[in-house]
Amino acid sequence: MLEKRKSGNFKILNLGEMAFTRLDSRCLYTLLICMAFGSTLSSNAEINVNAPQDFEIVDPGYLGYLYLQWQRPLSLDNFKECTVEYELKYRNIDSENWKTVITKNLCYKDGFDLNKGVEAKIRTLLPGQCTNGSEVQSSWAEVTYWTSLQGNLGTKIQDMDCIYYNWQDLLCSWKSGMGVHFDTNYNLFYWYEGLHHALQCADYIKVNGKNIGCRFPYLESSDYKDFYICVNGSSESEPIRPSYFIFQLQNIVKPLPPDYLSLIVKSSEDISLKWNMPRGPIPAKCFIYEIKFTEDDTTWVTTTVENEIYIARTSNESKRLCFLVRQKYL
Ligand SMILES: *[C@@H]1O[C@H](CO)[C@@H](O)[C@H](O)[C@H]1NC(C)=O
Ligand SMILES: *[C@@H]1O[C@H](CO)[C@@H](O)[C@H](O)[C@H]1NC(C)=O
Ligand SMILES: *[C@@H]1O[C@H](CO)[C@@H](O)[C@H](O)[C@H]1NC(C)=O
C-alpha cells in the first residue's frame, strides 16, 4: 500500500525530491518490517498449537460416503475459553482441487469415488482473539484411505448403464470384465442417505444364470442426493475388482414415450398432431416434446412444450408424411 502510493507520487516530484522520497520510503519499510518481526516474537513465536489428534478416515460401508474425524489437539489448556477451529482439506487422489472446510466440529462427512484413493489433511486454527495477535495455525496432520482394491483391473464390470425410467423405475445393466473366468458372477450393492446400511440388489437381471443387471425396488426419498453403487463379484479362480459409481437419480431420468398420438387432417394443408402425456410422477411442465416430421424426403425437427402442434403441409396430397414425437424431461 505504502510503496504504491509513493510511486504514484513520483510523477509530480523533481529528481531531488524523488531521491529523498525513495529514501524516506525505504526507512519506513525497514521500520515496518521490524515492527512486524517484533510482534511475531512477542506472540506467535510463543504460541504454538498442535495439530488435531487421531485424524482418521472411517468407512461406514456406505460405498463412498466417508467420515473424516479427529480429536482436539493436545495442550489446549491455555485456550479453554477459546473456540478452536479446524481447517480440513480433502480430495480424491489425482483430482486437481482440494475441497476446503473450516469447522468447529470433530467430524466431517462427504462422498468420494472409491475407485480411487482419498487423501485428507487437517490443521488447528487459533483465532486472533485467542492469541492477542494474528491467527495461529498448527502443522498439518495427514491421512490417506484406499478401500481394499483386490483383483486385476480387467476383472471389473464394463459399460455400466443406469436409467431411471419415468422417474419411477431404476434399472442398471453391465457387461462382465474382459476375459474373466466363466464362474465369475457379480453383485450390486447400493446406498443413499436415509438407508441404514448398503443393500444388495433383490431382483437381478440374469443371462445364463449370471447377473448382468438389477431392477431396483421403489426407492423412497432418493432424489436430489448422491446415490452410491458398488458392483463387486466373486470367482473361484481370481479376486474380482469392485467398481464404484455415484450419481443423482433426477439426472438419469428417461421419460416414457408420449401416449395416444393422434393425427387430425383438417384440410389438405393443415395437419394437427396431438398426444397425451405419459402417466407417472413427472409434472407436465417438466416436459419438452420433439417432433420429427418427414415430407418429400425432407426431415424437420421442431420442439414444443405444448402437447399438440399444427403443421402446414407444403407438398401435395399424394406424398407420404411421417411424424415422430418423443419427449424429454427438462
Ligand atoms: C492476552 O491479553 C490478555 C490481557 O492483556 C492477557 O490476560 C492474556 O494472557 C493474553 N493472552 C495471550 C495468549 O497472550
Ligand atoms: C461386495 O460389497 C459388499 C458391500 O460393500 C460387501 O458386503 C461384500 O462383502 C462384497 N463382496 C465381495 C465378494 O467382495
Ligand atoms: C404434386 O406435385 C408434383 C411434383 O411437385 C406436381 O408435378 C404435381 O402437379 C402436383 N399435383 C398436384 C395435384 O398438385
UniProtKB/TrEMBL annotation:
Taxonomy, superkingdom: Eukaryota
Lineage, top ranks: Eukaryota, Metazoa, Chordata, Craniata, Vertebrata
GO CC terms in record: external side of plasma membrane
GO molecular function, one term: cytokine receptor activity
Cited InterPro entries: FN3_sf, Ig-like_fold, Short_hematopoietin_rcpt_2_CS, TypeI_recpt_CBD
Gene label: IL13RA2
Acetylation keyword on record: no
Membrane topology: Single-pass type I membrane protein
Keywords tagged on the record: Glycoprotein, Membrane, Receptor, Signal, Transmembrane, Transmembrane helix
Name assigned to this protein: Interleukin 13 receptor subunit alpha 2
Organism: Equus asinus (Donkey)
KW Cell division (keyword) present: no
Location of the protein in the cell: Membrane
Residue intervals of the Type I cytokine receptor cytokine-binding domain: 159-252
Family matches, as Pfam families: IL6Ra-bind
Chief localisation class: membrane
